[in-house]
Amino acid sequence: MDALFDPRAFALGMVALLNPCGFALLPAYLGFFLGSDDDHEPSTMLALSRAQRVGLAMSAGFLAVFGILGLFLAGTLTALNSSGVLPIITAIIGVGLVILGFAMLGGFQLNVRLPKLSKGGDARTMGSMFLFGVSYAVASLTCTIGIFLLAVGTSASGASFAERFGNFISYAIGMGLLATFLTLAVGFGKTGIVNRFRQVLPMINVISGAILVIVGAYVAIYGIWSNQVLTGGDVIGWMDSIVLTVEGWQGSLANWFDTDVTIFGLLDQPRRRTTILGWLFITVNAMVAVGGFAARRNALRRFGSEVDPGLA
Length: 312
Description:
This protein is an all-alpha fold and 312 residues long. The chain has helices at residues 7-17, 26-34, 44-83, 85-105, 126-143, 145-152, 161-187, 191-231, 237-258, 273-303, and strands at residues 260-261, 271-272. α1 runs antiparallel to α6 (145-152) and α6 crosses α8.
């Protein structure tokens, strides 16, 4: 299971959620599916229960997209890397990303429209939110291809199929975790958090362009560096320093997740942070699920058919 979690891909997936192709529409979708535009809301716990299920359904959509991509591409990436073709492709894509990034800094806008609510999402159901998660994940690939390649395309040269597939899954989990946090924030009535993100939207294109230039430059450097290492050629010193520095950062992040810790002496022996965070996530969601179930039963007794049948 350790091979299926990559802290670097997880962190980059969280960053990728805030992309210009989809994030501008995310607050409106959350408002619709969570029913925050309703005049009648039975209870805060019911709203929180809705938020939990919406976030999990959307996350399932992310996992479906990147899980399928992982099954199809993980083995291909491993084979391309073994043949020495992947480093060349990586370098070419990196150069293309740098060009696209400078174009966006110059005013070019990369727009990808997500489906309207009337197309597969006109009802407040988990299926509709799952489909939105699928469409959001697909659209995000267009605007965050640089971050995506950095997460899944620049793994260690000896990465196995499971490790590369884990990169796809970790990337999806990162997106889903932040999306779930935002839905819970809306469920708590903390719309100010989403509004702060909306204030950044006018600058998203410029920010994305700058990120593409930086990420694209590193992807290109990594591709050239990998090719030099695989062919046994002379490694350019400054490229070697950049790649080793970034890999050092990635190693530090991975070590933080892999470190064994105790929680105020409550555990009989240290546990890995990923294990603790995983059980904490499960516990919190279980508590919300139980509370939401009780709140729905209470709401049905009090309000009957007035409760939204889709998400209530």
